[in-house]
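Researcher: I'd like a candidate sequence for this fold, 262 residues long. If you have to choose between options at a position, lean toward the conservative one.
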């Protein structure tokens, strides 16, 4: 456990039922933070709630929400902030399906924008007043290395992630004076259900075995392996902590060196 004190802090963790979101929730809770989880699957959420550490008598809870239902999301957020304030926000949503951008429908792009950019904006706007009152806020967006270098066969994701990165930088500049930081973590290939789905889809497209597709992907990573979700979580834990108080408006790749640009 990294010794960063987040006691008396509460985090809202989106997509907290599995993968990177779950790993971040666990890391924050291990360091004293109370957690509110958001995801669509109630069964998975309940499973994570049971696992979250309570070594400092934290109070954890969850909400079942669909990020594409913006009207319901806005109502839920308005009601939530009447009950409690949040110091940390993890904007994290599963990526859009893979595919070439030229083949993407307008509906697919619109859905991705709702699920990522618009949902994140609604949630963030709801939490900012409380962060300003405490003069402490950490807004952390889990995006993708495609912000720096677009990835093949992820056309819609590349487009939406870049939009979120510029949204984030703008917010960082606007909120800095209030003691609120806004940063992006850019995971590389990480051992999650989404990565396995992408590998299977690519193996079908190339008529190749999934293991060969995975090995080819690893060959483009200097560390020659995929990340574990916990390795992304440790970066989020640092950015959420008081010792990251002068870091805002950045993109932090956690990708084993895959991205070729600085």
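Model: Candidate sequence:
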């Amino acid at each position: 456990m990294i010794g960063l004190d987040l006691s008396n802090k509460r985090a809202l963790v989106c997509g907290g039922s599995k993968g990177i979101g779950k790993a971040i929730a666990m890391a924050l809770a291990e360091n004293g933070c109370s957690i509110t989880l958001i995801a669509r699957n109630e069964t998975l959420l309940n499973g994570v709630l049971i696992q979250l550490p309570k070594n400092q008598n934290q109070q954890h809870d969850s909400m079942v929400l669909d990020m594409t239902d913006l009207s319901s999301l806005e109502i839920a957020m308005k009601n939530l902030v009447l009950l409690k304030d949040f110091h940390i926000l993890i904007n994290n949503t599963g990526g859009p399906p893979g595919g070439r951008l030229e083949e993407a429908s307008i509906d697919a792009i619109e859905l991705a924008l709702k699920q990522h950019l618009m949902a994140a904006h609604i949630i963030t706007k709801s939490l900012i007043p409380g962060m300003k009152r405490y003069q402490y806020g950490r807004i952390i967006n889990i995006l993708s290395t495609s912000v720096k270098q677009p990835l093949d066969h992820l056309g819609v994701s590349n487009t939406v992630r870049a939009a979120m990165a510029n949204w984030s930088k703008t917010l960082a500049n606007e909120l800095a004076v209030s003691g609120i930081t806004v940063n992006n973590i850019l995971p590389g290939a990480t051992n999650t259900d989404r990565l396995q789905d992408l590998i299977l889809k690519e193996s079908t497209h190339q008529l190749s075995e999934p293991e060969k597709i995975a090995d080819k992907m690893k060959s483009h990573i200097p560390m020659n392996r995929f990340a574990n979700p916990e390795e992304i979580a440790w970066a989020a834990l640092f950015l959420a902590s008081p010792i990251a108080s002068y870091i805002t408006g950045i993109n932090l790749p956690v990708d084993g060196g895959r991205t070729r640009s600085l």
